[in-house]
Amino acid sequence: LETTCELVAPDLNSFESCFTGVEVVATMRYHSGLMGALKGAAVACLPFSRKLDSLASSLGEAASKVENDNLVSAVERALSGRHRLTEHVESLKERSYKNVEIIELLDGIK
Fold this sequence. Notes:
Elements: E1 24-27, H1 30-38, E2 42-45, H2 50-58, E3 63-65, H3 71-80, H4 85-109
Parallel strand pairs: 1-2, 2-3
């Protein structure tokens, strides 16, 4: 596996644009993985938090967890499942809408 890479340190206003045209995101942070997936990138999750385990599970074949310090293998697995990314992202979006509905209901209770 040979590719170019770029390390970026975006601010809040430029965060989303960093993921345009990206094929795969290798990340240890949940929101970077989520934004990458929303913009069409496969996700390789570094072992850092349980939230990433949840994201990897939600993205199915389009995400992979790094095992035995083998990032290359995780990237290759995630890329091989990238064609299934859209369906998994749609499912995540549907679940997020339900979360908003629940929050709005709870907000009306106070």
